[in-house]
Records
---
Amino acid sequence: MKKLKEVLDKVLSLILPKEKFVEKIEKMDIDEANNLPGANEIKDEQFKAVFQYKNKTVRQAIWEIKYRGNREILKKFTKILYEFMLEEISDKMAFENFRNPLLIPIPVSRNSLRERGFNQCELIVRELAQIDNGINFEIETKALKKIRETPHQSKLKNRALRLKNLKGCFSADTDKVKNRCVIIIDDVITTSTTMNEVSKTLRKAGARKVIGFAIAH
C-alpha cells in the first residue's frame, strides 16, 4: 500500500507539478526550519508547540502534512518536534517519574479518515517512534477514538461552543492507558480545547499524567 502511494505521488507530481513554495519547504534543511518563528506560550501549561501557525511557511507545511501526507515535510518537522519534546520533558523524566510515556495521536473522525485516507497525527506519532527507536517512548494508536462526528472547531465562534462541540466525543481504552504517563500529539493547537477534552478523557480512563505537544500553535 505504501509503495502504491509512492508511485501515485510520483505520477501526480509529473501531471501536477508542486508549487515552488512547497518545493522550497521540502528543500529546507533542519537549521533553516528551526529558525522559523517559535510558538507563543499556550495558556494551558501542560501543552506545548514548536512553531507559530500564523507564519506562512509553517501554515503551508502543516497543510502539506495534514492533507497530502507530504513525507519530506513530515520527516523534517517531526524531527524538530522530537528534539523539542525531549528538551521539554527531560526534567519531568528526572524529577516527576514521567517514565516510558505513551505517545497517542489525536484521533480523527471516520469521515475525515475516509476522505483523507490517513490521520496526520498518527503519521507524526509513527515518525516520532521511528526516530526514537524505543529509547524514550512507546506508541499506542488504538487507545483513543473519536466516537462522534463534530463540526470543525475553527468554524465555531467562541470557546463555549467549542467546549460543547467536543464534550463526550472521545473514548479511551482503560486497559491501554491506566496508570500510564501519556503524551498527546497533534499537528496544530488552536485554542487547546481539543487537547483539554482528550486529556480529560484519558485521565478518566486512568492515565496518571497527561501532557500534549504539537508542531504549531
---
Amino acid sequence: MIRYIYFDVANTLLYKPDLFVSIDRVLKEYSINIDASTLMHTHKLLSEIIQFPDKTSREFYQEFNYQYLIALGVNPKDEILNDIFKACSYLSWEAFSDVHHLNEIGLPMGIISNWDETIYAKLGEHINVKFDNIIGSKEFGTAKPSLRIYEHAIDKSGVNAEEILYIGDSIRLDYIPAKKLGIKALIVDRTPGSANTNVNRISSLEELTNYI
C-alpha cells in the first residue's frame, strides 16, 4: 500500500519547452538539419551519463554541449557552442501539462531533487500543489544518486520504504537508487514510442492513480 509519494523536479514536473527549439534554430543557422526526436533522444541519453551539478555554469554547459554535438555527429566548433549557450541560457521553466493531476492523488507528497536553494521559489511559481517535504541536494549537501538523500527522504516521510512511490525521469539518478532501498519507483517518459524495457514506466502523471 502506498502512503507517500516523492517526485523529482527537472524533466519530471518542470521542463524548458523552448530548449530543443532553440538548439534546432542554432544548428539550422549552420546548415545542420537533425530531426527533433534525435535531438531529444540524444540529449536524454547524454543526461543519463553526465552528472549535472546543483547549480550549472557556462563551463559545465560548454562541456556538455561539446559532448552532445559529438554524439549528434556534429563538429563542435567554438562558434556553434557559443551560439547554443547564448540561445539556451535563461530559458523559462514551465510545468508539464499533466502536473495538475497531482491534486487528485490525495496522499502526502514530497520532492527529492538535484537543485539549489531556488527550488522552493521555482515550485511555488509553477506548481499549485502542497509538498510536505522538499529535499534539494544543495541544501541537504548530497546529490542523487547517493542513497543518503533517499534515506533522508524515507526518514522525513514517516513511513516505511516499501510504502513510498518515487517518480522521476532518470534511471541512474531516480529509479536505481530508490529501488535499492525498497522504494517503489516509476519512470515518467512522455516521449512517444519509447522502448519497452525492464523499467516500470508511465507516459503521463495521469497514470499514477493506477499505482496507488
